[in-house]
Amino acid sequence: MAPIRILVADGSAVARREISQMLGSDPELEVVALTPSGRIALEKAEQLRPEIVVLELSLEGMSGLEVLKALRRQFPRMPVLIFSALTESTGNLTMDALAHGASDYITKPTTPGGVPTLEQAREPLIAKIKELHSRIQAEPPKVVLPRKRHELAKATAPQPRIGVVVIGVSTGGPNMLVDVITALPADFPVPVLIAQHMPPVFTRLFAERLDSLTPLRVREAVAGEQLRTGQIWIAPGDYHLALVREGPIVKLLTHRGPMENSCRPAVDVLFRSAAAAYGAGVLAVVMTGMGQDGMRGSQAVSQAGGRIIVQDPETCVVGSMPQAVLNAGLAHQVVPLKNLGAEIVRRVTRALSVQPVAG
Prior knowledge:
By secondary structure, the protein is of the alpha/beta class. It folds into 2 domains: 4-134, Response regulator (Rossmann fold); 164-350, Rossmann fold (3-Layer(aba) Sandwich). It is built from 11 helices and 14 strands. It has a 7-stranded parallel beta sheet, with helices on both faces. A 5-stranded parallel beta sheet has the order 2-1-3-4-5, sandwiched between helices. Helix 2 runs parallel beside helix 3 (64-74) and helix 3 packs parallel to helix 4. The longest helix is centred in the last third of the chain and has 14 residues, at 337-350. Residues 137-147 have low confidence and may be disordered.
């Protein structure tokens, strides 16, 4: 197979050299252009038609966000991976980039003094590039093939009233979660907890952005807070989010326990704790993401009598996480992104007249 052709746009000469060396060390990748200039990046994209663009947000002449907007107009299906250092300002810019169609992001690792240490990003950067490339959609076939049928789990008993909704999501999540969360009404009757694979700073900024888009209250999770209706909690970056029951009250717990599935926060940790706190009253949702985080947690939810729905992998940026749950026979329903928020509302409100779950 021909190597994946990559255009790198980064304002730092040192970063361009190191990124080129990192990517060039993999025989499946080829850097076809390096540039510090946003304008030249657009020219090279037109001339060379790369398969992936690795984009720093600080460029010469025009911002990375402006470049992204132009790329999306001209090449709507070309994967664009944001690769920037993590600061308050670049965090907000990255959120803007994701809102304007960036495929995903990787944060540039730095020392405590702020000096880039890009070699630490080699493996995740290469993995993201290969995963995004594998998702490039070819031209639609002239003959539409039948959709694959999934073997779904069978509920052995009616589910009692839902007490909590837990959502696990990774690659592609920031944009897709907006679609889901904004579909929830102001009187949504149960709390929602989200484990989104994100580093520190990003999770707070993401919570603030979601909070501005919905009448529900969205915040980064704080240990010791009591769960109440009308609340949405985002797991903090580099901390697991869990639930603990104290009699009729359920509280948040955040901790820096060992990574699971190379993740912290991990979906599995959240799902297991929800099953322990709410039993059969859990509605677990596994959305777009790379890997299989959420699969073992879904097992715990299933064993407790809860329900699991997954985003249709065909509507994901990366479908590995929901597909892992499907392959394990744990999903009770497969729902495309456009219907996912409405299905969560339907399931929760349908169960309002059922015997309530404590807490």
